[in-house]
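Anyone? Bumping this.
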Amino acid sequence: MNQKYPKNFARFYDTIYSKMRHGDDSQFFLDLVKKTGGRVLEVGVGTGRLFTEALDAGADIYGIDISPAMLDILYDKLDKDQHYRLKEQCITSFSFNEKFELVIAPFRVFMHLNDKEDQIKALNNVYDQLNKNGVFVFDVFNPDLSILQNGIDNQTDFEGEYEPGRKLKRTVSSMPDLANQVINVLFRLDWEEENGPGTEEWETSLRYFFRYELEHLVERSKFESYYIAGDFEGNAIGSNSREFIVTCRKTST
Ligand SMILES: C[S@@+](CC[C@H](N)C(=O)[O-])C[C@H]1O[C@@H](n2cnc3c(N)ncnc32)[C@H](O)[C@@H]1O
């Protein structure tokens, strides 16, 4: 399964998610970056939806991502003298010469890790790259059981213009694989181009997590303490929680 974001999905990412996602998590992560200070790393930095705002606000922020197409969009947004802040690396194996106060993996990055070996590797690798008292924060969704069971059949989740007069549409189908605890997602983009219509499909999979599985997972890792909130306001998990926001703390050196 291809976990790297293809070229046109990177190209239209900001158009789609500035409408679909903006506001849900951005204030939470930006406040966290400002409050923490020091060196910050965004894992799965993508096109810089949060990264550029944090950098503009004066944060000493770095970014890694496995998708060159996503990083290319972000490179174009940054002054050349800031390019050193980005690296094409994976959460399970990245390393930097200096450690971080805070590592964040916003917007489902962790759900791209399908195997438990990779999930543990990722947690432990992040741990190794943190200073004492450093924190790792990531979010995954709390699975909606009816969507899990029924899947989604060819639903249009975005329709708009990506530039004046040029239409873009995204449709999504999802097929749950309950045995492997993944959702297989088929995205399709259709857009208008100067020389005719464009289209691209991308099939990928997202690993979903249950609350106690997440607790066991973090408890198996090197992190000494953690808290899982049910929303971006920090409230405890309840029956209406749509998110799991996991904050893992490293308390030893
Ligand atoms: C939904 S996007 C989120 C991008 C950005 N954090 C945001 O909030 O808009 C997920 C990103 O995670 C990256 N990613 C997926 N698996 C990864 C891995 N193993 N290591 C690093 N980045 C990964 C993808 O390439 C993609 O850019």
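Late reply, but here is one note on the structure posted above: The first strand starts at residue 39 and ends at 43.
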